[in-house]
Amino acid sequence: MAGPPAATSPASPVTGPPAVTPSPAAATRAPAPTPAEHRPEQSWPAPVGQQPVVAAPPPRISSPGTATSRTPPPISTAPRVVAAAVIEPVVEPEPTVTVAPSKPSSFRPDIQGLRALAVVAVILNHVLRWPSGGFVGVDVFFVISGFLITGQIFREKEKTGEFSLSAFYARRVRRIVPSAAAVLLVTVVVGYFLFNSTRALATMWDAVLAFVFAANWRFAALGTDYFHAVDPASPLQHYWSLSVEEQFYLVWPWLLLLIFAIAANEARKARVGRIIVAVVMAVIIAASFGYSLWQTARDPQFAYFSTFSHVWELGLGVLLAAASPLLVSIPTGVRALMGWVGLLGVGASLFILNDAIAFPSPGAAMPVVAAALVIAAGIGGPQRYLFPLVNPVSVYLGNISYSLYLWHFPVLVFLLLLMPEQSVSSTLIILGAILALSVVSYYLVEQPFHRSPWLRAFGEPGERTAAWTAWRERFGTQFIVSTVGIIAIATIAVFGVGTALQGSRPALAPEAAATQPAQNPEAQLQADLSAAVSATSWPGNLSPSLDSVMSTTSNNNPARDCFNTGNTPDFGRCTWGNSNAPHHMYVVGDSEALSYAPAFKAIAEASGGQWKITTIGLYGCRFTDVLVQNDGNGVMDSCPQRKQDIANKIAGDHPQLVVIANAYALGQTPDGTPISAAAMVQSTVTEAAKYNSAGKILYLSPPPLGAELGQCYNKVSSPQNCNTAVDAAWNEFARDTIAAKGPGDTFINSLPYSCFSGVCPAFAGTLPTKYDSVHMTVNYSEHIAPALRYDLVALGLM
């Protein structure tokens, strides 16, 4: 039976995790929302001033009308019965009155439709890169979550006089963990068979952190790690939002308990409790939104994954739940207008927002407020007029939205490995696979566990056995059909992966014809690169292996400490060769200079005591006169002073040669102003003028941008997948540098070191050329030292 009319608004089911969305621009937006609860319901609260007080607390019987958050309906199919309640007004003592039977809880199809809109937008954004603002679905889910879950807590407290933390967290576990754990397990296993070893291991650690709801902090750390910022997106990156949400609910229920205790002695405790909740949450919202604005401006990548940057979105949903008794009295006409304005606002945000807009704050404000309008409009009654949300298709997609969200990103990542070239047919296969897995998972895992007796409290000893028996009878057929479906999907997947793996056994590195001893070592380099360009299978004798260099990155670079953030390092510790050598050379710049450092170290040590070479700079810090934005942790704080210290040192030392190596990539100033290639080159020349070394400047071009190894190198790919052409930006930078360099200054074209006939492979001979898309490996840098020295001698610089 249902108890007396509730002075709350939300009903039973709760929302679930939102999503991630790394956008194509920087893989910084991670994938998007994770909806969660199954069937949101709404018990229409009495208007303010008429909230009833229960004369005697009703028995705690779980039913669709009175269940607390995430409590499933009883196994029994008996019809709901709503009892009349004898109440006493909360205000001044008045005669006891009898109120008409309370209205049964009503299912909220509008909220399910809002979930469907959010998750579909996220999936399309990831699969099609359209709509541009599809990633805001996560923010919509945060609002839904705060509203429904807090409302559930209010209902439990006001109907039973108690709020059980253990029951609350048991519901969260039943609702969230089974499906999330299933996707984590499948993703780790499939990743083991498809990914390269480095990416497979990283995915395993992603899964561990996601399982304990800490994935967002891992992705925030990796996203601000300069040497991992360009790594391919984890198939589990979308779990960041689930982590944010669960961290919020690790704290918020305890704070509610404290508020309930404060209001316990008040005569109007239901109303006072809601008022205190609203005031407290308003303060939290203001603090969180302020922090989000500050952090977004300072470090948008970190802000996107930070829990503190999103609390205000969940908090707005909490405010709606607290204000439900007020919102229920909004006239129908006004509610209809609110609903449509909110829906149009959410829809418009999908197309207005993009990667160029500051996010999450203030960018998320538009979809968050719009979603709140839709939710608020439905508190006073059904929104039958909001047909885009309440139609059967939208409602069903809303029901399975949690499964859709969990499965969509792993499916996308894995199928893109098997089908690198996206076409209409491959896109349809991806979308079909996402839907099929989600439907099967919903009926096989999500719904049965959500409705199971697992972690529920039972009074009599026989109740638990009876509950499990009824549960098996209810879901038995569903299990059989779903299992058949998952077997069919697994069979197709195994066949597809097995076919892709055929012929992918490692071979020996292709051997180039040995060249006759010649003065120019580039001849052998070109022969090795030519053989690698035509290779069709990954060599098994690369040393070090691609997996090894990808996991090591620049950590074994002897000059790594000379390019770290923080204070300017000691110049002596960054100098190679004989300290008393008569000739001195500086190699400065960003991480490209760092990747060349092993080559110059080898040149210095092989110079017979004639040269000492100082390699120093700062990764992520373009050695230009203008400051170029970089999101690497600590880069912007260290860059200006590092460039100034190095310029002063060089100007005072009067070296014979200064080599500048910067990335050939476009950028922008800290205020977002784009910098063209020509402007970047001219700014480099301006910076070089500070060295007081006119005619002694050498501009060393970096290797062209390569393929991202984490994506192109895997167990179902070939070296051809990692071959890349020289990018247009590289050609533009090289051309502009040759034109802008000062009189007597020189330029070295690096293409002969890493490309053959305009194609750049991932390895040459038995050596990987890069450990990511940008930086040379230490071994390959040392390998090109003779060719680099030959060019320096040919130019008369050594």
How would you describe this structure to a colleague?
- With 798 residues, the chain is an alpha/beta fold.
- Helices cover 51% and strands 7% of the residues.
- It has 27 helices and 17 strands.
- The strands form six sheets. The chain has a six-stranded mixed sheet, with helices on both faces. Strands 2-3-4 form a three-stranded antiparallel sheet, with no helix packed on it. A two-stranded antiparallel ribbon has the order 1-5.
- Residues 1-105 and 513-518 have low confidence and may be disordered.
Write the layout of secondary structure elements.
Layout: E1 41-42, E2 53-54, E3 85-88, E4 97-99, E5 106-107, H1 109-128, H2 137-160, H3 165-194, H4 197-211, H5 215-223, H6 239-262, H7 269-298, H8 300-305, H9 311-322, H10 324-327, H11 332-352, H12 365-377, H13 387-390, H14 392-399, H15 401-418, H16 424-450, H17 461-501, H18 522-533, H19 546-552, E6 575-577, E7 583-589, H20 591-605, E8 611-617, H21 635-653, E9 657-661, E10 667-668, E11 674-675, H22 677-688, E12 697-700, H23 709-712, E13 724-725, H24 728-740, E14 746-748, H25 751-754, E15 759-760, E16 763-764, E17 767-768, H26 778-783, H27 785-794
Parallel strand pairs: 7-8, 7-9, 9-12, 12-14
Antiparallel strand pairs: 1-5, 2-3, 3-4, 6-8, 10-11, 13-15, 16-17
Helix pairs in contact: 1-2, 1-14, 1-15, 2-9, 2-12, 3-4, 3-15, 3-16, 4-5, 5-6, 6-7, 7-9, 9-12, 11-12, 15-16, 16-17, 20-27, 22-24
